[in-house]
Write a structure and sequence with these properties.
62% helix
Length: 93
């Protein structure tokens, strides 16, 4: 038997984010939020984000989730310090 060279196939899938969100139930989204290890109740933030995303405010919904679950700063003081530095740089420019 002769060996045939392997051939590869590439597949591209175009999916709309709102289709994914609509396919998930609120409970599925809450379950995912709880699995990432949030301490406390993420329900209000998640429900608010769902409303934003479903009403077409996708960036606002994502931002709300990022603020709650993926904060850039570990404390309010660190956030305020970064804000003060950013404002000082803005004034200097």
């Amino acid at each position: 038997m002769a060996k045939h060279p392997r051939k590869s196939i590439s597949v591209s899938v175009d999916v709309e984010m709102d289709e994914i969100v609509e396919a998930l139930t609120d409970e599925e989204i809450l379950d995912m939020a709880e699995r990432i290890g949030h301490s406390g109740s993420p329900r209000d933030v998640v429900l608010s984000a769902i409303v934003m995303i479903r009403s077409g405010r996708i960036n606002d919904g994502i931002t709300a989730l990022e603020r709650e679950f993926l904060p850039s700063w570990k404390s309010k003081a660190a956030c305020e310090s970064a804000y003060q530095l950013a404002m000082a740089l803005k004034v200097a420019a």
